[in-house]
Structure prediction request, 95 residues.
Amino acid sequence: MTEYILYYYPYCPYCRKVLDWLVKNRPGWEAEIELRDATDVKVMDELAALGGERQVPCLVIDGDPLYESADIIAYLGGLDPSPFGGETCTITQGG
Ligand SMILES: N[C@@H](CCC(=O)N[C@@H](CS)C(=O)NCC(=O)O)C(=O)O
Prediction:
């Protein structure tokens, strides 16, 4: 099972692009992707330690960071939609 965490800023246009894509294309995504708001400096520090860059959006896939909104959407678009709303992804808590 794959764990997904999306680091984002609420008002970042690149983050909105990813979130809007999810809303449109992956019903049920909220249950599968944990959101972490990086406007909290502790969360951004966590992302920087994990991924090496202080930039959002960043999708962390089983601990591996994927930066760049276009790359994130391309990655998500290549996934079989069935895990979203299905039962093959971990539902993470917190954030
Ligand atoms: N090319 C990137 C641009 C992302 C970007 O510029 N993100 C800004 C927020 S809108 C950022 O993380 N800035 C660093 C900061 O605020 O510390 C993408 O498409 O994801």
